[in-house]
Amino acid sequence: MSNAPASAHPITDRTREALAVTRRGCEELLVEEDWLKKLARSEATGAPLRIKLGLDPTAPDIHIGHTVVLNKMRQLQDLGHQVIFLIGDFTSLIGDPSGRNSTRPPLTPEQIKANAETYYKQASLVLDPSKTEIRYNSEWSEPLGAAGMIKLAAKYTLARLLERDDFTKRFKGGVPISMHELLYPLMQGYDSVALKSDLELGGTDQKFNLLVGRELQREYGQEPQCILTMPLLEGLDGVEKMSKSKNNYVGITEAPGEMFGKLMSISDDMMWRYFTLLSFRPMAEIESFKAATAGGANPRDFKVLLAQEIVARFHDKAAADKALEDFNHRARGGVPDEVPEITTSGAPLGIGQLLKQAGLAPSTSEALRNVEQGGVKIDGSTVSDKGLKLVAGTYLVQVGKRKFARVTLTS
């Protein structure tokens, strides 16, 4: 088999359009010329390209930042290509060292299985499950055995592995690198050989591993895959990458109203990046929204369209419409129709503890910060006293514009 994509097929307008879809919002496409040739061949022959996304199920829940790469898979899936959702059940036993300055403890097979099931169920809210090939890399990694692993390791040098930024820093800093960590990029690269991948997607932090796959395919006489890296989405603060630990995330299993309100809180400038990376609207339409805003249109109207699209994707249109209705009602000072009912004890209880126990603040210190900023209301009245203690009773508690709870406090 040739080690370069065939170039005899014509580059049509449709091929160029597919390239534009591929490039939308991406950080890097390597090698673009090779990918264009693959697209042209696919169009001329009718044979779909094989597009791979490998995920180690290290955590069960995903937020919309994780869906940036899934959205790209869906766009390519809609062009008629075969997407492969690869669950790294074998590589999870090693632990991906990417971007880490210490060895990651490997997961147990039970943890991996449970996380993988939840992860794929959530990813199916973006991908078309009927057109998605699900594979587990234990299929070909376990049968390799010791002899196969040695043959694979012989196809790559230690010097090349140590070029990787995180390995370089750890090596120079005298931080231990375990032998099994050096195997991780090789095993991920071997996945591309086993699946005969034409394109592999990943975050910018995965670039080295993706390039290893490309080199190993050459070693095995295959046409090398192209590589597409997607950026890491900034969170609601518009600064740090979206992360649960930074509390700047939108979870894809969150309630529609919470999801809608969070998306409405992003800045007007950040909205356009969210549109590019998260929306399935054509870029021409998004550009028309930008032009309308520059001409004086209210950016809030377009933010509503974005929030509704995303809520509808992970819930449904009725939920998106209801979320908008509730959001507008709250903006006018109203109370949502559905308010969580919470019972807690300890009266008389300090306001900080009450907010924490009611789930309206992650910590007492954060709760008191909200009080300081005038963001807490009890039965419609703003609380200004951080030392307030509440006696037994039932209260309508509000934090910010979006969080409400009807709290029954007992002694």
Topology:
Elements: H1 13-23, E1 28-30, H2 32-45, E2 50-55, H3 67-78, E3 82-87, H4 109-123, E4 132-136, H5 138-153, H6 158-161, H7 165-172, H8 179-195, E5 199-203, H9 207-219, E6 226-230, H10 256-264, H11 268-278, H12 283-294, H13 299-314, H14 317-331, E7 341-345, E8 349-350, H15 351-357, H16 364-372, E9 376-378, E10 381-382, E11 389-390, E12 393-399, E13 403-410
Parallel strand pairs: 2-3, 2-5, 3-4, 5-6, 7-13
Antiparallel strand pairs: 1-6, 8-11, 9-10, 9-12, 12-13
Structural summary, described in words:
Helices cover 46% and strands 14% of the residues. By secondary structure, the chain is an alpha/beta fold. It folds into 3 domains: 13-230, Rossmann fold; 256-331, Orthogonal Bundle (Tyrosyl-Transfer RNA Synthetase); 341-410, RNA-binding S4 domain (Structural Genomics Hypothetical 15.5 Kd Protein In mrcA-pckA Intergenic Region, Chain A, Roll). A hairpin with a 2-residue loop joins strand 9 (376-378) and strand 10. The longest helix is centred in the middle third of the chain and has 17 residues, at 179-195. The mean pLDDT is 87.
Number of helical segments with 4 or more residues: 16
End-to-end Cα distance, whole Å, is 77 Å
Enumerate the spans where pLDDT stays under 50 for 5 or more consecutive residues. Answer: none
Overall pLDDT metric: 87
Q: Quick one: overall form?
A: globular
Structural class from helices and strands?
alpha/beta
Read across the widest sheet, the strand sequence of neighbours is 1-6-5-2-3-4
Give the helices and strands as they follow along the chain: HEHEHEHEHHHHEHEHHHHHEEHHEEEEE
- Oligomer class: single chain
CATH class of the largest domain: Alpha Beta
> What is the rounded Rg?
25 Å
